Amino acid sequence: MAIVAQKSKGLTDKETHYCPGCTHGIIHKLVAEVLEELDVLGETIGVAPVGCSVLAYDYFNCDMHEASHGRAPAVATGIKRVMPDKVVFTYQGDGDLASIGTAEIVHVAHRGEKITTIFVNNAIYGMTGGQMAPTTLIGQRATTAPLGRTVEHSGMPLRVSEMLATITGAVFVERVSVDTPANIRKAKKAIKEAFQCQLEGKGFSIVEVLSTCPTNWGMTPIDSLKWLQDNLIPYYPLGNFRKPGEVK
C-alpha cells in the first residue's frame, strides 16, 4: 500500500500541550518537514524562549536550547558563532520577539547573523494570560486592555516584518499565514527558503507566521480562523518583504 502522508521525522511522538485550535502544531509540522527535506535534522539546533513554545524541546526531533524571555536571538547568535556548521533557528511568539526581545531581534538582523527565526504572530500574549502585545490590533481586547487597544494609550501595532526588511543584514523577510491549505503550502515554501538562505551563508532570515489564539481571543477555533482572515491579514499583509540581493 502506498503511503500518502506520514508524520515528519522532525517531530517526536510527544503529545503537544497547545490549546485546541491553536495553529502552533501546524507551524511545528512545517518546520519539521523542511528540516527533514533539507536533510539537516542531525545538524540543527533550535532555540525556544519563554512563551507558548517553551516546551518545544519536547516536540522537535533535533537538539533544542532554552532561552530567557526574548533572548532567543542572542542565544542563537552564540551557538551559531561557536558552531558555524550547525543550522540554528529560533521559534518565538510576538509577545516574546516584538516586546521584551525587540532589541535582540533588531540587532541580530543588523549584524546579519546567519540564523533563521520563525516568528509566530497571534497578536496577543498567549502563555502568560492574554495580555496586550505590541502586535495587538486597535480595538482588540486583552486582559491588560479590557476595553480594547487604543492609539492614544499604546500607539499603533508594530509591523515587525516591514521594520526588519529595512535592515541590510536581514536577507530574507516574509509574512505568511496558516489559515487555509493554500496559505499553509505558501508558508512551508517560505520557511524552506529561509533555511536555504542560512545554508548558503547569506545572512539573517525570518518568516513571520500569522497564527490564532482561540483561548485568549475568546473564540472557537473556526471563528478564530475567520477573525484572522478578516482582521490580522488586512493589517499585516502577506508576502515577501526582502530577498537576497535586494537593496532597500
Instruction: Please describe the biggest sheet, giving its number of strands, its sense, and whether it closes into a barrel.
Output: 7 strands, mixed
Strand segment tally: 7
Shape: globular
Count of individual domains: 1
Structure description:
This protein is α/β, with parallel strands linked by helices and 248 residues long. Helices cover 35% and strands 17% of the residues. A seven-stranded mixed sheet has the order 2-1-3-4-6-5-7, with helices on both faces. Helix 7 links the parallel strand 5 and strand 6.
Topology record:
Layout: H1 24-37, E1 44-48, E2 63-66, H2 72-82, E3 87-93, H3 94-100, H4 102-110, E4 116-121, H5 151-154, H6 160-164, E5 170-177, H7 181-199, E6 204-210, H8 214-217, H9 221-235, E7 239-242
Parallel strand pairs: 1-2, 1-3, 3-4, 4-6, 5-6
Antiparallel strand pairs: 5-7
Helix pairs in contact: 1-7, 3-4
Could you provide a short overview of the structure?
35% of the residues lie in helices and 17% in strands. With 248 residues, it is an alpha/beta fold.
